[in-house]
Structures are given as structure tokens and as C-alpha cells.
Amino acid sequence: MKLLVIGLGSVNGDDQIGWEIIDALEKEASNNLPITVYKSKGAGIDWFSSLDQTDYQCVVFVDAIMSDGKLGNIREIDLNRLDSSQFLTQYSSHNISIIDSINLAKNLGMLGMPVKFIGVEIGSASPLTDMSELIKVSVPVLIERICSLTQSAAVLE
Asked: What is the pLDDT of residue 137?
């Protein structure tokens, strides 16, 4: 299965996790995995440009989330079951809802394939700080999970 993986993030502490995943996947891509990556510089609509190919079978967003979960936990979230206000207050570490931008892309006919969201529970998104070691530990686990999606039709469910 061919995936487009979009990493959301910023330079602020643990919020770098989405970008870290993209950097790691770029190294894995040399293993001929059917994964294309895009590093989003914000939670707006800059990632729309990554949808220029129509042969993706799934789009996977990776980002930091802030809720009541344990730091470093990886959560796959069904975006169809959330509204944007819930996502903003319970899950997103950004001020702009990724749900709203996904809905816009769908309404514009740019996003017809299944969409998954994988988030990592973070603690701090302090400006210009490094990502914490606890969050870095989740990187290989997340890479393995994303790579496994290329071998499975379960992502389409």
C-alpha cells in the first residue's frame, strides 16, 4: 500500500515529534518502502501541495497531542468520530485544527483516500527547546507502525 505521511510540528520541544518521524522515514524510504513523506511547517494547509499524486492509498498524519494520556503514548485517532472543537481542546498542540484543514481538502476533492491520524502524547512544547528523551523513545515504535501499514489492508477499515 502506498502511503503519504505528513508530519506536523514546530521547533518547540516535544512538538518536533512529527518532523522527527518524517526525518526517520526519509532514511527508511531508501529501503524501497512505498512511502512518500511531507514535513509540514505548520498546522495550516501547506500540506495540500503534497497531494499532487493520486496514487496514494492512505494519508497518515503524525503530530504531537496533548490530552490526559501518559507521556510518550502513541494514539491512533479516528478523525471521523471527532469534531474540530474537541480535537483542538483535547488533542492538538496547535491553534489551528487539522480536522478543519482535512475537511477543506475533502470538500475541494483533494483528499479522497482514507486518512489516519497518529499522535504522540507530549508534555512540553516550550519554544526552541529540544525534544525530550521520553518522547524520542516513541520514534522507532511509530516508524515500525507506519511501515507496517504498507503491508496491511487494515488501514482502509
From this structure: 93
Q: CA-CA distance, 51 to 135, in Å (whole number)?
A: 29
The total number of structural domains in the chain stands at: 1
Which residues constitute the domain of residue 26?
3-156
Question: For position 107, which CATH number holds?
Answer: 3.40.50.1450
Q: Please report the beta strands in 58-151, taking only residues with DSSP state E, as ranges in sequence order.
A: 58-65, 74-77, 115-121
Integer Cα distance of 151 and 8 in angstroms: 24
pLDDT tens-digit readout, 91-127: 444 455 788 888 888 888 888 888 899 999 998 788 8
- Mean pLDDT is lowest, of 87-91, 105-109, 130-134, 139-143, for 87-91
CA-closest candidate to residue 120, choices 13, 38, 40: 13
Rounded Cα–Cα distance for residues 96 and 31 (Å): 34
Q: How far apart are CA 139 and CA 142, in angstroms?
A: 5
Cβ atoms of residues 129 and 12 within 8 Å: yes
